[in-house]
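Thread: Newbie trying to understand structure tokens

Hi all, I'm a second-year student working on a class project, and my supervisor (Dr. K.) asked me to get a predicted structure for one chain before our next meeting. I've only ever worked with sequences, so writing a 3D structure as a token string is new to me. If someone could post the tokens and maybe explain what I'm looking at, I'd be very grateful. Here's the chain:
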Amino acid sequence: MRLQANHQGWLVIREGCLLIGGLHDASIVIWPSPGTQWDPATGTVTLDGVSAKPGDEVVLAGGETDFPGPPGAYDWVSEPPQGCLGYPHAWLTWELTVVPR
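---
Reply by user tm_fold:
Sure, no problem. This is what the structure looks like when written as tokens:
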């Protein structure tokens, strides 16, 4: 993992993958378990009581890591679709802040 402090961007869903990024680049987000709830019907993710959905600008504390990592490397709350495994890097987060509009 490459230690970093924060990653600020917009939550987006592309091809069933929940990502943080902008128009041209994005990273899959790895959320902590326990502590994270995922509602696939609304695309809402909740981490320690803070909720965000696609289109929200967020700040994620954490760091970048190689993805998908070795088999069994993550205890998924909801395993991402197979197509999400094509992203070379992921953002491993432990804190979610929604930027006020």
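A couple of things are worth pointing out once you decode it. DSSP finds no helices and eight strands in the chain. The mean pLDDT is 84. Feel free to ask follow-ups in this thread.
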